[in-house]
Amino acid sequence: MNHESVTSMFGTGAQGAAGKRETDHSPGAVVHSWITTVDHKRLGIMYILYAFLFLMIGGIEAMLIRLQLAVPDNHLVGPETFNRLFTMHGTTMIFLVAMPFVFGFGNYLIPLMIGARDLAFPRLNAFGFWLTVFGGFLLYYSVIGGEGMTGAGSAPDVGWFAYSPLTARAFSKGHSTDYWILGILVGGFGSIATAVNLLTSIVCLRCPGMTLMKMPLLAWLYLVVSGMVLLAISPLTAAQIMLLLDRYLGSHFFDVQAGGSAVLWMHFFWIFGHPEVYILVLPAFAFASEIIPVFSRKAIFGYPAMVAATVAIGFVSVSVWAHHMFAVGLSSTSNIFFAVSTMLVAVPTGIKIFNWIGTMWGGRIRYATPMLFSLGFLIQFLLAGLTGIMLSAAPFDWQLTDSYFVVAHFHYVIVGGIIFMIFAAIYYWFPKATGRMLSERLGRWHFALFLIGFHLTFDTMHVPGILGMPRRIYTYGADRGWGTLNFICTIGAVFQAAGILVFFFNLIRSLRCGRVAGNDPWDAWTLEWSTSSPPPEYNFSRVPRVNSRRPLWDLKHPDDPDSNYE
Amino acid sequence: MPVAAPLSESGNERHPAMDRGRVGMACLIIAESAIFTIFVVAYIFYLGRSLSGPQPRDVLEAPILNSICLLSSSATISLAIRSLRKDRRKAFAGWLAATIALGIEFLAGTGREWSYLIREKGLTISTNLFGTTFYSLVGLHASHVVVGLILLMIVFVFAACGIIQREHADRIDVIALYWHFVDFIWVVVFTVVYLVGR
């Protein structure tokens, strides 16, 4: 049975109908239709475009930071500007890039993968997106509005975790910190709305036959991620409300002089901050769990163990936050507790890494671009996890806390793990969303440049940390001996930027003249590949019924369906 | 061989217990609980740490009548929905009005308490840590009561216009779920602020 006829069975015969309905193609009508849309696919694409926009902005901030640190005693930007740069870089990359990527893919993929026509609450979905957009723009409005109407503008400069008492009125004058609070607060409401939506959709809208244990792993991971968003973003929201009360109504939550506690802010922030890392990395796991099997031509190894490990990570990750605070001087009992619980995360994560390797083992691996990025992710995430275990030992952390070793560690997680998998996911699902393939040749250039740049920057960055270079200093003396290492880091950043430019060029070029993808270019197995590319507004004209975790495998191989083995 | 099922409106919703409105509200309640947990933790953490007076035991009176009002409004809204399911729409509107009245009385009680504390006892949010944590925790709860009341009033306006039908009971059930949550939070706040914290 050939694949086109297979997919047209689930598929829609919808290309014609979808095309005819939109006759008005004037720019105004197109913009209007995108702004008023409640379609999960369009909102998903807009989330991702929004993330691209801020990836550029956050990337430029990172380049400025790297240029400033390239040589000792540099005065390219002053100390105040440097503080604003690292604050905005961190805040942007976490809240305006990584989170929108996560929700963008969740929005786009979840209904298609569970065989639904949209999310459970389409209008809430649009609401969440526009709140997120508003939050991001509010944050960046601080650049012109941060010191009020009369003064020159200023961006927030309190660091992305905004430790108290630096955020108190007395030490943070003007409105820049308020924009930081309000921007993230508003975006947080959007995140909670989207998480409610994704969770409800996965629980309520699965197509007939799709029991929980027959869901694609991506749906399982997003189920856990959404639950974690509900539990983790809310504490940040609460703490930010307290901070606003402190700044505007004169309350004393974090006011040490009135008996308040600066450490309480740290606790509240990291109760959000650490689960946030897993909120970002679990979707990366989700993409890996979909992409690695397809490009290894094997079903995922150990599906139940993967599910159990995901849920375990979800539970453990909410009890590890104080490993960000070993240097504060907690009691040794709590140090031991948080060190042990942090090390414990390595167990389910290790299970996942073994299962991905087990999936590849003996498979016929196709080294297409999505798989290349996935392999990069696998190795880099392992290394990032290993430095994570080093830092989870409290005495080791005391030595290296707030040094460039920590900076290198978490960039290894976020860039080497999460960003690599986001690129893999874009190469993998771009054909579905647009109907055209991304260029493999440019994809390989992107991968090579970005890989080289990543390792030049972040492998090297561990060393100045061990040599004692603290984070967040705007310059350093030539006699410290950190100059060469920092220069190598900056060269790596240039390579990464070049890779990103190749990527954007690839996106634009392939959108216009890429090879036509067809419904199922990767010969994949999950439901999104059964409908047309791009899918019609209603996804499936007939709600599919599934019997296994790989419904398209069953269709393509009716003589040997998966349901015999699950 | 998998068979594609024809699409019907109910095709995606096969579990009546897993109504999407209820699941969505349950998710929202989880998120809200996390917000309240942080405020409750802050309240408990700062108990007795105020550097100056007044202290809770000097000024707080347990609002028993108020609490009875709010908790009984949980019962009235259940009765309202039960009436609607039996298609007794007048009774529905009556119980709904009673729920709204009880909620408003609760808010008015909170207003009286705050007015007393601010004017007679000189306790504001910036007086000391007790004022900070008390007004923010009780105020957070009161703001949720306000949201719940707005929702209930919208339903009441619809009911008064005769728009609400029997088949809307499930949707109003979702609002009721929120209202029960607000009441439950009051039990926690009451225990922490007026029983343990005093």
Task: State which percent range the strand residues of chain A make up.
Answer: under 5%
| Overall geometry of chain B | elongated
Straight-line distance between termini of chain A: 23 Å
Task: Count up the helices of chain A.
Answer: 17
- Given as residue ranges, the uncertain stretches of chain B (5+ residues, pLDDT < 50) are 1-13
Largest sheet of chain B: none
Going by helix content, strand content and strand pairing, the class of chain A is mainly alpha
In summary, what is this structure?
Chain A is mainly α. Chain A has helices at 3-10, 15-21, 27-35, 40-69, 79-114, 122-145, 176-204, 217-249, 262-296, 303-317, 332-360, 369-392, 394-400, 404-434, 440-466, 483-513, 551-556. Chain A has one domain (3-10, 42-564): Cytochrome C Oxidase, Chain A (Up-down Bundle).
Give the topology.
The complex is a heterodimer of chains A (566) and B (198).
Chain A: H1 3-10, H2 15-21, H3 27-35, H4 40-69, H5 79-114, H6 122-145, H7 176-204, H8 217-249, H9 262-296, H10 303-317, H11 332-360, H12 369-392, H13 394-400, H14 404-434, H15 440-466, H16 483-513, H17 551-556
Chain B: H1 20-45, H2 56-59, H3 64-85, H4 89-119, H5 129-160, H6 169-196
Helix pairs in contact in B: 1-5, 1-6, 3-4, 3-6, 4-5, 5-6
Walk me through the structure.
The complex is a heterodimer of chains A (566) and B (198). With 566 residues, chain A is mainly alpha-helical. Chain A has a single domain (3-10, 42-564), classed as Cytochrome C Oxidase, Chain A (Up-down Bundle). Chain A has 17 helices and no strands. Chain A has helices at residues 3-10, 15-21, 27-35, 40-69, 79-114, 122-145, 176-204, 217-249, 262-296, 303-317, 332-360, 369-392, 394-400, 404-434, 440-466, 483-513, 551-556. In chain A, helix 5 packs parallel to helix 7 (176-204). Mean pLDDT of chain A is 93; it is low at 1-9 and 11-20. Chain B has 198 residues and is mainly α. Chain B has a domain at 76-198: Cytochrome c oxidase, subunit III, four-helix bundle (Four Helix Bundle (Hemerythrin (Met), subunit A), Up-down Bundle). Chain B is built from six helices and no strands. Chain B has helices at 20-45, 56-59, 64-85, 89-119, 129-160, 169-196. Chain B is elongated and about 55 Å long. The termini of chain B are far apart. The model of chain B is unreliable at 1-13 (pLDDT under 50). Chains A and B meet through helix 7, helix 8, helix 9 and helix 17 of A and helix 1 and helix 5 of B.
